[in-house]
Each structure stands twice: as structure tokens, then as C-alpha cells.
Amino acid sequence: MLKVVERRVLALKVDWEEFHERLEYDAECDGTTTDVERILAELGLTKEAIEDCVLYFDAAGGHCDCEIALNVDMTDPKPLRPCSRCRDCGNDFDEYSYIVHDRVWGASGLSKNGGLLCVGCLEARIGRRLCRDDFSDAPINRLDRRQSLRLQNRING
């Protein structure tokens, strides 16, 4: 089912650059996709197409307006992968190539070999948003365009 949704979304004729410009998200997130749905409607998408987009964004790591703004880049969409790697949510958002300081990982309640967490689930476990100082100086933490937008946002500060 998800592959069908992915094909339909990627076939849409949408100015994704305009979508992202309009979605720039600096406000406090309310956990909804209200802004995304409004913008897509204003760009001329049908209700069904908007529902497909919201499903696609969710599978790509965008559960709400701010996570879509930070984690989903429709100007360069990456194929959805069915593998599940995050220990908590079961999703794979390409957010496992990072190393936080031991004190940060310890606050998650997991041992060093306790599994992988996407950025969102690590933040949920520690009860706050990650910041630049949470990441070690390991080479893997250097900014790379292959990282999710959310991970880039946290590493960049």
C-alpha cells in the first residue's frame, strides 16, 4: 500500500520548492499537519492527493508540520524503504548516522548496544530537543546532504 501512495505522490505536479518555502516552520509545533494540508490545498491538490501526501510524509519521517519542514525534502525525495530500524517507532528515517555524547544516550535509558533510535524517538526519551552540544565531535556528525533535514538541523544548531 505504501509503495502505491509513494508512486501517486511522486507523480503529482506540485511546485515542491514553493511548498517548502511556504512551510518554513519557526513556530511552536502543535503536532498536526494542518499547515501542510492548507498549503497543499492552496497549491490545488485534491483531498485524496493531500491524504496521500500526509501518509507519504509520515512514512518519510514527517509526523507533523514541523517534522515535515525539517525532515522531508520533496525537492529531492528519497525512496521509502520498508525496513524498520528505530527501536521505538519502527521507522527508518535515515537518522542513525550520528553519535551523541554518552550522557545524552544514557538519558535515553538504553545501553550503548541497546539499539538504534531516530532523532525524534531519542528526543522523546530524553524529554527535549537535541542541540549541537549533544553531538560528539566524531566524523560521522559532520553535516552531509544525505542526512535527514531534521538531523542536519540538530547537528547544525
Number of helices: 8
Low-confidence stretches: none
Taking the alpha carbons of the first and last residues, their distance comes to 36 Å
- Helix share, percent: 40-55%
User: Hey, roughly how much beta strand do the residues contain?
Assistant: under 5%
Supply the number of structural domains. Answer: 2
The secondary-structure element order is: HHHHHHHH
In short:
With 157 residues, this protein is mainly alpha-helical. The protein has eight helices and no strands.
Protein traits:
157 residues; mainly alpha; 2 domains; 0% strand; 8 helices
Give me the secondary-structure topology.
Elements (H helix, E strand, L loop, with lengths): L1 H9 L5 H8 L10 H9 L4 H13 L5 H7 L30 H6 L11 H8 L22 H8 L1
What does this structure look like?
With 157 residues, the chain is mainly α. The protein folds into 2 domains: 2-71; 102-156, no CATH class. The chain has helices spanning 2-10, 16-23, 34-42, 47-59, 65-71, 102-107, 119-126, 149-156. Helix 1 crosses helix 4 and helix 3 crosses helix 4 (47-59). The chain is elongated, with a radius of gyration of 16 Å. The mean pLDDT is 86.
